[in-house]
Amino acid sequence: MAQFNDKVEPMDFTKMPKEYQDLLTRLLTIQADCEIGGPHIYVDHWTLRAPTVDDQWRVARIAAEEIDHCRKMLRLLGLLDIDRSDILTRPRSKREVDAFKEDMPTWADFAAFGMLIDKVGEYQLEEMNGSTYRPIEDYLGQILREEKGHISYGQQQLEKLVKSGDEGREQAQAAVDKWYTVGLDMFGQSQSARTERYIEWGLKRRTNEEARRQYIAEVDPLIEGVGLVVPDKLKGRKYL
């Protein structure tokens, strides 16, 4: 089919083909699940254990923003008469994306998560720019601005660790080694028929492999810029 470019309002959702309904529902549900998934990893451990009171405040603020992003995605689903509030209490082992099943034992993990995993989140959200589901545009600008702040904070914290000495550098490198691979996997299979359907329906703009290549081109210099080594891109290779 030719690429679909019309704008769909909530009142028109049930008039759309089932494939469109299923893809949109899946996209919003996964995004909501990812947004709440981060706080479920780090809130209990780092909100009151971050290195300084300023860092504790920042962790709390990031968590609040991520929860609000989830709230907005659930609201977009609610406009379609779909209730997925069950994801708020979903066990971590049942999360949609493997990245949100991981542990975060060190402050370096929190920092690398912010720089690398929130950067993947930014890419995922950018896919919705110009979405054929019109209400997304009501929220996307604010969410993307806040995600950029999370990424910047993670980058700053990694740089601090690197400059703090050998132990901090080692922790930072280990965390980047872990979360870089996890981040690459988050883009999904390179050859994904479902992604082609998302693009056809105007719900995404890039294939998984296109987005992953662009992510690598952007993130590798950031890693080197904080004084760390870019990990092996082929490690794991779940996406091939």
Give an account of the 3D structure.
There is one protein chain. With 240 residues, the chain is an all-alpha fold. It has helices at residues 18-46, 53-78, 107-126, 137-163, 166-186, 193-200, 208-225. It has seven helices and no strands. Helix 3 runs antiparallel to helix 4 (137-163), helix 3 (107-126) packs parallel to helix 5 (166-186) and helix 4 (137-163) runs antiparallel to helix 5.
Cα distance spanning the termini: 27 Å
Radius of gyration: 18 Å
Q: Per CATH, what is the topology?
A: Ferritin
Mean pLDDT: 95
CATH class: Mainly Alpha
Low-confidence stretches: none
Write down the overall geometry. Answer: globular
Strand share of the residues?
Answer: under 5%
Would you count the extended β strands for me?
0
Order of helices and strands: HHHHHHH
Helix-residue proportion: 55-70%
Tell me what the CATH architecture is.
Answer: Up-down Bundle
Q: Helical stretch count?
A: 7
Class derived from helix and strand content: mainly alpha
Q: Give a short account of the largest sheet.
A: none
What is the fourth-level CATH superfamily?
A: Ferritin, core subunit, four-helix bundle
Tally of discrete structural domains:
1
List keywords for this structure.
240 residues, mainly alpha, Ferritin, 62% helix
Topology (SSEs and partners):
Layout (H helix, E strand, L loop, with lengths): L17 H29 L6 H26 L28 H20 L10 H27 L2 H21 L6 H8 L7 H18 L15
Helix pairs in contact: 1-2, 1-3, 2-4, 3-4, 3-5, 4-5
Q: What's the short version?
A:
62% of the residues lie in helices and 0% in strands. It is mostly helical and 240 residues long.
